[in-house]
Fold this sequence. Notes:
The radius of gyration is 17 Å and the shape is globular. The protein is built from 12 helices and 10 strands. By secondary structure, it is α/β, with parallel strands linked by helices. β9 (236-240), α12 and β10 form a beta-alpha-beta unit. The protein binds D-glutamic acid. Pathway: Cell wall biogenesis; peptidoglycan biosynthesis.
Amino acid sequence: MDTRPIGVFDSGLGGLTAVRQLRRVLPGEDIVYFGDTGRVPYGSRAHDTIVQYARQDIHFLLEQDVKFIIAACGTVSSTFPPEEAAKLPVPYTGVVGAACRAAVAATRNRRVGLIGTAATIRSGSYAAVIRDMMPDAKITARACPLFVPLVENGYVNDGNPVTRLVIAEYLEEVRAAGVDTLILGCTHYPLLKKMIGDFMGDDVTLIDAGKVTAQAAAAALADLDLLSGRTGGGTARYYVSDTPDNFTQQEQLFLGEYAGGPVERIAIESY
Length: 271
Ligand code: DGL
């Protein structure tokens, strides 16, 4: 048993989609979240820059004495070197593995769509894991660089004409490929789930990378005997690298019933 908090981070607020699910499945755990709102988006940056940012994010969480780290960011998960992750003093997971397992379990026609940031798609991370599990999978991948700024700026209301147009622009070829499963490979995208689902059609299963990762992390914590042993009363503390105002305005959207909790600004460059 271990009562230290679980550390979760993302380039911005998208990782809160994983926090929401963690709080649902592990109500007795404390959570420390860092959103790098001053440097979002990561997905259009160079590989070295993303690795450097991720190192600082992880360093900050380790200083909060976390027992487990979740990179609730498709971009970091696709970029941070696994050999470096394996050397961290606490267990670490990204979102790629759990999302791919869920997609492979869901697909019937072996046509899987994948959307993510430019860095995620360029890395080929999801495609490699899916092919390991299902070598004959037909994967249609598309980078959607405008989705993160749309979500961070709150363009998520159902039917928003700007967002609807961008969704159609990005997803037309994915839909035309006949996929029956679509991985939302960036943790910001669940905020657009309803509109993406409307565009793709009812028979396409959408995989929420943050949500399935939170479920997998809960199982891993149990296996590693790292759960707190409490069945309720877990708390969440939030840290951001830009003004907390944006977080406070948006948190309801991302966290729903779990919104609330202290938010503090930190200087992530110093980590
Ligand atoms: N939520 C991050 C991800 O999953 C967004 C990346 C970005 O900042 O571009 O990829």
